[in-house]
Amino acid sequence: MPKVSDEHREARRRQILEAAMRSFLRGGFQESSMSDIIAESGLSAGAIYGHFASKSEIVAAVASEVLEGGLAAMKEMREPDGTPSHPLDLIQRLVAGLMERAGGTALPVQVWGRAVIDPELRAMFGTVVPAIRAVIADQIALWMHETCGVPDDVAVARGAELAPLMTGILQGGITQAELLDGFDLTAYLALAAPLFEPPAA
Amino acid sequence: MPKVSDEHREARRRQILEAAMRSFLRGGFQESSMSDIIAESGLSAGAIYGHFASKSEIVAAVASEVLEGGLAAMKEMREPDGTPSHPLDLIQRLVAGLMERAGGTALPVQVWGRAVIDPELRAMFGTVVPAIRAVIADQIALWMHETCGVPDDVAVARGAELAPLMTGILQGGITQAELLDGFDLTAYLALAAPLFEPPAA
Fold first, then answer.
1. DSSP states of B157-194 as a string?
2. B51 near B13, Cβ under 8 Å?
3. Which of A54, A201, B29, B84 could pair covalently with B24 via S-S, beta carbons 3.0-4.6 A apart?
4. Contacts of A171 in chain B (CB under 8 A)
5. Cα(B54)–Cα(B48) distance, rounded to whole angstroms?
């Protein structure tokens, strides 16, 4: 029997994750069972369980794919003229990437709620949040240093300091965008602009 | 047969809500069924369904009790010397009230996740968020007017403008406090202080 190639295995893995995403978006994250995901994928149960032992494992893989792809594309974001993008534009782009890759804001809000009682999802949150904070911190440092002329070490320290708050503003914005009709995320984010005033020399 | 008094009805209602809260905190919000809540309350199924048609109705009642009690106590908060409390102290007090009344930050994060797919909880969110925003907006206006000498109409407008962002900061802080070990909510909130610089005259 020929050995299953790595490419084939990776294609199968992707097929499962895409089926899971479709299933979550249509039927709800909480409501989608392993059987739903199996049916949606068109693969056998054996094929799925060969890749993922549980729905939590699938969710963790979906989330890290969505995030890794999104975050890599946003590292040290610059405008067409080469100047660093404003940190709030990065946050806006993070949400836009989420809308595109995860089909909206529903999935993260559901995953956070579930992570409260699911140790695997909680562990994923503990990995993902520092990754998001790092991208935000880097952008703040880059923008403050190049655009505002803040010394590099001060800019880096301020980026690291502000990143948890900006991550919280991102999460609160996603939650309100998902649950409140007519919520204006752009106006909401713009209110945070005073946080980026360069520190007095 | 004597008519069941309003007091008796209200005591029963409270008994059910307290049982539901205990059940949510111990077994998880998602995992607690109507049967669990009935068992926890020590009442009959009929007694429970006479008050609440579904778990969502119970959750909505629990959330509004927790919030109404908490919010009423925080309206126009002042320090012992009579000066208005800083808006960030109000936010801190909101979280402390949540810890005390809801036993921690787990319940709101789970309810937000569930509200994505539960119309009754979503509607509750749509009522609760404006109530929280209003208390925050009033505190910002009071503090800016009395402490910073900002004209009343400007202070009121700034309070209303900032309230959605502060609500998001509160939600993001609750989510991170619940899901990240060692998260420092006080330090996180303190970062938002520059948002309350009075507008230039």
1. HHHHHHHHHHHHHHHHHHHHHHHSTT--HHHHHHTTGG
2. yes
3. B29
4. 168, 171-172, 175-176
5. 9
The identity of residue A42, as a single letter, is G
**CATH assignment, B1-53:** 1.10.10.60
Cβ contact, residue pair B171, A167, below 8 Å = no
Burial (Cβ within 10 Å: 0-12, 13-18, ≥19) of residue A35 = exposed
Q: Compare CB distances from B172 to A117, A169, A179 and report the shortest one's residue.
A: A169
Which tens digit of pLDDT belongs to each residue from B6-45?
888 888 888 898 888 888 877 777 778 889 999 999 999 9
Question: Which residues of B are less than 8 Å from A29 in CB distance?
Answer: 116-117
Q: What is the ipTM of this complex?
A: 0.87
Which tokens in the block code for residue B66? 């927790």
Question: Between chains, do A116 and B179 touch, taking CB under 8 Å as contact?
Answer: yes
B138-185 pLDDT per residue, tens: 999 999 999 999 999 999 999 999 999 999 999 999 999 999 999 999
* Every domain of chain A and the residues it spans: 1-53, 56-196
